[in-house]
Design brief:
- By secondary structure, the chain is of the alpha+beta class.
- It is 28% helix and 25% strand.
- A hairpin with a 2-residue loop joins strand 2 and strand 3.
- The relative contact order is 0.11.
Length: 135
């Protein structure tokens, strides 16, 4: 299996796992949604991929400039439309300690905005879903 694909399996209950590049990512549904709550729900992983992607850009910015990243954290929040339950906004706040150089604060935001997951959401790919008979 190449790096441009992953395989999804159903290990039982409401669990759905994805295998990719030698890793397995586990998901489950919450107890409220009929699962056992043993892993994050897929939508939570989607949100986590956005926050951690922004985080890797923030971390890389600091490492490249040898700026200590201790005390830096990203806090992501989101809003949903009450009727449709669709996501309407996502906010990422980068919290820095008082010792973080003021001249780099705006640059940190620009770094986080380079996140590949965010850019994919902003310019979504085409989706193709099909059924084939596996012989």
């Amino acid at each position: 299996m190449g790096s441009n694909s992953m395989t999804v399996s159903f290990p039982g209950g409401k669990r759905v796992n994805a295998a990719c590049n030698g890793f397995e990512v586990a998901t489950d549904q919450s107890r409220e949604n009929g699962g056992e709550g043993t892993a994050p729900e897929p939508f939570e992983l989607f949100l986590a991929s956005l926050a951690t992607c922004a985080g890797i850009y923030v971390l890389g910015f600091c490492q490249k400039r040898e700026i200590p990243h201790d005390g830096i954290r990203l806090v992501q929040s989101w809003q949903r439309d009450e009727k449709t339950r669709r996501l309407v906004s996502i906010a990422i706040t980068i919290e820095v300690p008082p010792t973080f150089p003021e001249k780099y604060r705006d640059a940190l935001v620009r770094a986080a905005n380079q996140c590949a997951v965010k850019k994919t959401i902003e310019s979504p790919p085409d989706f193709v879903v099909e059924t084939i008979v596996n012989s």
